[in-house]
Amino acid sequence: MKSIHLINAILALSLFCILSSELGLSAGLSLEARRATGLIAIGTNMAIGILGAITSYRLAWSAYLVLSVAGLVLVGAATPIFALWLALKLL
Fold first, then answer.
1. What are the backbone dihedrals phi and psi of residue 43, each rounded to the nearest 5 degrees, phi first?
2. Rg of the chain over CA atoms, in angstroms?
3. Do residues 66 and 58 touch, judged by C-beta distance below 8 A?
């Protein structure tokens, strides 16, 4: 698998997270639906990061995984891009 495909998947996943966050709050989705969406996004992000870690860019993808876990723990975001978006929105 090429890294550019994985990067595109991360960008799409981040956009999905942003849109589902906005729609979840405004549309009044149930807590269970928002929780399921978040868990699917987290699992997908980790799977993409692990797939990236077996490419020739192991160090970069390993750093991405560390950023993903840090964003998850500190802000509760599935991807680092979504974590940055949330942090900017909160400020």
1. -60, -40
2. 13
3. no
The whole-model pTM stands at 0.87
The residue ranges of every structural domain in the chain are 3-90
pLDDT in tens, 23-42: 876 677 788 888 898 899 99
Q: How many residues does the chain have?
A: 91
**Beta-carbon contacts of residue 46 (< 8 Å; ≥ 6 apart):** 65, 68
Alpha-carbon separation of residue 30 from 18, 23, 62 (angstroms): 17, 11, 34
Provide the 3-class DSSP secondary structure of residue 63.
helix
Beta-carbon contacts of residue 55 (< 8 Å; ≥ 6 apart): 1, 2, 3, 6, 61
